[in-house]
Amino acid sequence: MPNSNLKLSIVVPVYRSAKILHLLTERIESIYGSDGSNVELILVDDRSPDDSWEIIEALSHKFEFVRGVQLSRNAGQHNAIMAGLSVSVGE
Fold first, then answer.
1. Closest CA to 47 of 75, 7, 85
2. Phi (first) and psi of residue 47, to 5 degrees
3. Which of 11, 30, 47, 91 sits in a 20 to 30 Å window from 83, CA-based?
């Protein structure tokens, strides 16, 4: 369950980004920590043809602050951002 006292939600649309998701997550963890108390990282898979969704799932199991959203079809960057914002809980 997401922390309702979060200060920051970071929403990232994901398309053909499998190779960089680990690095992105590790850099955010190095800044904010991994306990999920200050930040949430919402990775929105815009039906990427690579294995981005599988990596998002693995990252969400490994890091408490990572949440994944998978769109039912490719909807474009702006719609992916809006989908992520709709589930965000940060201020």
1. 75
2. 55, 50
3. 30
Nearest to 43 by CA among 19, 62, 15, 23: 15
Given 3-state DSSP classes, what are the helix, strand and coil percentages for the chain, each rounded to the nearest 5?
35, 20, 40
Helix (H) or strand (E) holding 62: helix 52-62
Mean per-residue pLDDT, 12-19: 97
Q: Rounded to the nearest 10 degrees, what angle do helices 52-62 and 21-32 cross at?
A: 30
**pLDDT, tens digit, 9 for 90 and up, residues 16-73:** 999 999 999 999 999 988 676 789 999 999 999 999 999 999 999 999 999 999 999 9
pLDDT of residue 62: 94
d(CA 91, CA 4): 9
So what's the pLDDT on residue 90? Answer: 86
